[in-house]
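Deviations from the work plan: none for this task. Representative record:
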Amino acid sequence: MTYRDHPISGGIAADEAYWAALEAGELRLPRCAGCGRWTWPAHWRCGRCGSWEFDWTRLDPAGSVYSWTRTWYAFDRTKERAADVPYVVVLVEVDGADGARVLGVLAGDDAGLKIGAAVTGTILPPDEKAKGYPSLVWSLV
Amino acid sequence: MTSPLRGATAVVGIGQTPLHKRGSAPDPEMKLCLRAIVAACEDAGISPGDVDGFVSYGSERHDGQKLMPALGTRELRFGALVWGHGGGIPGALGLAASAIVTGQAEVVAVYRSLAENAGARLRVAVAQDDTAAQYLVNGIDGPVQICALRTQRMLEADGIPRSTMFALARAAYHHAQRNPDAVAYGRTFDETVYEESRFVAEPYRLHDCSRENDGAAAVVLTSAQRAADLVDRPAYLLSAPTGAAAGWGPLEENHRPYSSSGFEAVARRLWRESGYGPADVDVAQIYENATGMGVAALLDHGFCAPGEAGAFITFENLIAPTGRLPVNTSGGNLAEGFLHGMTLVTEAVRQIRGTSTNQVPGAGLSLMTGGPGDSVVSSALLGSAATL
């Protein structure tokens, strides 16, 4: 299974390298090759310096909870997670990326879940729940 | 500096079909749309064939050119959609005004029609296939979950009290009890009902969330000059800016400031262009896709400082006729019914006319804020002749 077989349209589509890296087991976020600014979500051009080049920089999957929600309903387009309801999704500020945030499901015990809590990420290979995409799941430290 | 659009156009007609439970409208979506536009024209004393401009927002499917044969349109001279979803409604009024002031159209209809298609949940259609993989891969489907993330931050990190969310919901249901056309008319609503409703996406319970209805609503605008000849109390459009500041847009939850509803820049323009400020507003229709986002919209528009939110955003302050800022006086998206906010426009106009079922006595300045948290947002300030 690879995300490339059933791509999700809808985003800006400049984040191909993010999913390719995750599928290879790495977290990578883009930095502008011209001015070094972390540019997330990914886009095609750096609006600050005008560069069209980005360095997809490897990061440790670690950060802190910026916000969270516990979903109690099996929504139409995420029915693959119906059996997991209720589940928690965290918005994580990734360490060392100038405040860039990514989403992910919270795995394991959620005691101590709060904004600011430290989390570490595990990269999962593509699976049904993630709609055939690789995914980053987070656990409270 | 005021805008050349200030007071140059006015809403002269409003039309609204009954609101039905999702999937139960007796008419298909386009027929509902036509009924609303025709009703707005009749209200204004304008022949439907005279409408020469058609403006809506987001995913509206009923382009003016599809409506022409049924309306008897002689010539379509202007048609456009404002980008975004519900964030664009008040901006649609501004776009209509731009067309009129520049002579591109004389009579512009702004409208929204919704009826659930067989087998297709509206929120899927509404999502317009612009939900990024970052969301769907991680169990986030729709707006309510995204709003939940932002509101959780507002509550937990910014310290805005949860009581503000209940106050907004309670005021909406309170107003609906005097509006026989509201879907929540006659429905009991109190803290027990609210707190015991099931969670949808924490911190949101069912009664924090707007739920789509079938129906249509429309307004008709024309020049201020013609408006004065047509109707007794035109609702003049004072300002209706659309936009997004840097740090806002489709940023996959990297918005800054995050617990905002995205209105800071638009609100600044609204007050500057209209020459009024939040303290001048008599009544407000605040688009609440979910209660906490409506609270954030009130803060973004400067009605109170964050530290005063608990004291200002109370049931007593939010109800007509006595509250400091009566909001959602027809019941709002939560309790009147949800047509992606379009019913808030018709109610904002009724307040200027003095015909709301929860009338604010002598209302002269009537605000409508668009879908909060959308990637672009807009707000509109309508005023009576005395406010020009």
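The mean pLDDT of chain A is 97.
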